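We emphasize that the prediction below concerns an isolated chain of 318 residues; any contacts that depend on oligomerization or on bound cofactors are therefore not represented. The input was used exactly as deposited, without trimming of termini.
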Amino acid sequence: MQTLIVTNYQPGDEAWMFELQRKTLVRCPDSALMDPVSYRDPAFEQGLNIFCAFEGDKRLVGYGWIRPHRVLWLPEETLILPLDVRVDPDYEEAEALRQRLLDVLCERAHVLRTRYPQPQALLAASYYSGGRSSIDYLLGKGFRHYASDFSLRRDLRQPLPERKPPAGVELRSGRLQTAEEQQEYLKAFLACEKESWTLDELREFLQSELWGNGMLIAGYAGTSMVGGLLVYYDPDPDRNPDKVGRAERLFVLPSWRGRGLGRCMLYLGLRYLQENGMMMAELQISALSPRDLRVYETSGFYVWQETVLLGKEILGRR
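Result of the prediction step, given as a token string:
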């Protein structure tokens, strides 16, 4: 057997990593293909958070990565460290290498957590629910199922009901073009969501191609925004042949929940997509239990894909 070397990522390795992930997904379709450009993300610290395993003359047989991140399904005092491990399924010592890479990532996690103030730290991984091999492997290593992300879809060829907003609320639509509108939206959104979305990140999204045909659907009580929904679509038939529009970041302030405002904004957003030629709407949500899906299922959505969110607490500090 040739010598195996585990070393940090170097520019150029991403092409091999892309091909190896493609190969693993043929055997176990547990995630989307990661764009090679993604490995240049500053969170990877110029390769210090990526580990590549080479056998012999630069044959990549495995890799693993880890990076700090924030997610919606845990409190702010928890540092989240997502990771992924990929090993060539044809490599003779695949299971041993998988364990070795996981151990290396765990060691790196202890280093990373010392840089952040959160008292708790969690190793995290996410896989499509059909990728049982990856899920079962980590469950066997002490990870547990914390929550699931769901991609929901609704057929826009089906009729959309008319709904009036609750008393005291006016629905408005807009493009978030001014600094005042952006700040108002972000303040309302962050008042009821735990996501760490900054003004700079919002503005980057608003300048992206995705938002080229985007619209904010918002509920106002007087001059105050009390709910919102972002909807957008890609009109290019080559990039979007199935004519799928997207709705995301639906929120309602706690004091206005339970009055039908969320459903009202959702229908208005779907109508916007429908009127602009979209055949299907897609919505991403995080859910802790099946009952969290009911409001969407009763609005005509169905689960198109589930992503299982796994986590394992990192004990102690180094």
